[in-house]
């Protein structure tokens, strides 16, 4: 039955959050000005503290401590996020995503070249 008006479970929350993060990275400036870099750094830090799944938040805090965000520009940020997502994928036994610019742009930026998603 339809559960779309129920509170999100951990998986739904995760899908929505990754959608937001990867999409934001795909539209991030190619080369981000200092103020934008500060804002992105603050967003990621806050997310790791406020994420409403406590064990997810704990692991994410540890992960970004060892792997500081690359907020310099679109490609660096997209790849960094892809790797963070892969570390959660690994933990959950999910498939690894190939973090190339091409694959990331196809999934989260311009979409596939064959126009399937236009
Ligand atoms: P998702 O993992 O949500 O991915 C959505 C889509 O993103 C995929 O269909 C694929 O097209 C694409 N994708 C997959 N991998 C990548 C990648 N590396 N880079 C770019 N795109 C990719 N769940 C838990 O059970 N335990 C946790 O500890 C946990 N920690 C989390 C921490 C954070 C910060 C976030 C945002 C989510 C966390 N989640 C956790 C949720 C989990 O990551 C998934 O979102 C959830 O399990 C649903 O998975 P899914 O198979 O629908 O696809």
UniProtKB/TrEMBL annotation:
GO cellular component labels: mitochondrial intermembrane space
A GO molecular function held by the record: flavin-dependent sulfhydryl oxidase activity
Domain of life: Eukaryota
Key words of the record: Disulfide bond, FAD, Flavoprotein, Mitochondrion, Oxidoreductase
Transmembrane segments: none
Recorded coiled-coil stretches: none
UniProt cofactor(s): FAD
Annotated localization: Mitochondrion intermembrane space
Catalytic activity: 2 R'C(R)SH + O2 = R'C(R)S-S(R)CR' + H2O2
Chief location: mitochondrion
E.C. no: 1.8.3.2
ERV/ALR sulfhydryl oxidase domain residues: 6-108
Keyword match Cell membrane: no
Identification of the protein by name: Sulfhydryl oxidase
Organism field: Tremella mesenterica
Lineage: Eukaryota, Fungi, Dikarya, Basidiomycota, Agaricomycotina
